[in-house]
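pasting for ref
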Amino acid sequence: MAEVELWVDGRIHAGWKEMTVTRAIDAGAGSFRLVLSDRWGGDVARAEAIPEGAACIVMLDGLRVITGWIDAVEPGGDASTHEILIDGRDRTGDLVDCSAAVTGPTEWYDLTVLDLAQVLAEPFGVTVTAPPELIGRPFAKFKIEVGESPFEAIERACRMRALLPASDAYGNLTLGRAPNGTAVGALVYGENILSWSAPRSAKDRFSQIIVKGQQPGADYLPTDQIAAVEGRAGDPGVGRYRPKVIIAEEASDTAAATERAGWEVSVRAARGRQFRCEVQGWRQAPGEPLWRPGLLTRVHHPQAGLDEAHMVVTRCVYNKGSRGSTTGLELSPPGAYDLRAEPETPPAESWL
């Protein structure tokens, strides 16, 4: 039987009746909730042995999925039963909650996105890594906004370099792109899919996206050209008037603004097409690694209109409860996170 273990101060706490662990491709921190409900007995002291704020590790089936801190402990019960709820997150949760640059500088020059993320994460004991080939050019200048959290600043910098910041199982931050790996096997209707849904949304799609910005000053350019950079792209899948103006994060020219507008159209269309399902167990297949965000996965589900489609796992929710051990998966077309792709305007009814 799949086992859930919570490690606190070198002591293993097992026997949890219910469990949820969530990891996502676009979340600042993985999170967990553990529940024990039993009759009064030997487990009564467990709540006292798990103080809020303690460092912890969560293991699923012998594999680490969370390295972080316990946010909350809630013992309770009635005359005959005893219940303990434990909530916690990765170490990167502090990057989400706290303010950046409380002391020291609030702006930096000539730092890469990795350098900047490491500077902001270092006070919190969080290590940041990124493949060297993805780091890109340094920022001429980067300034922290008042009240901004470290993760907000890192995410803003990553957007300018087409990267995704995400926590790993060891509580550290990785800057990368998706997909990053291929799943073992496939998700197949009638075989390993227990339940499913295929939501479609037009909420974040717009008939026209206008990106406005400002290009760096140059002696040979007139002032009006420097200050009035604009790029446009339309989404043929949106039939009514729905314009959206986006301010470019850094200086750009008309070509870059137009490319950004096209990228916004294609990515928003892809993110409006999702597939959600639940599978038995936490592993991709018996003896294989756990499901994780970022995996490229084949989906064969004719009822959802997916015939050997390739999709990216964007969220994993590991569960343990009355149905045993299951994993909830959310998937999107690769275009939703293909930050390197040349922007394309997708057909109105295109899934992928």
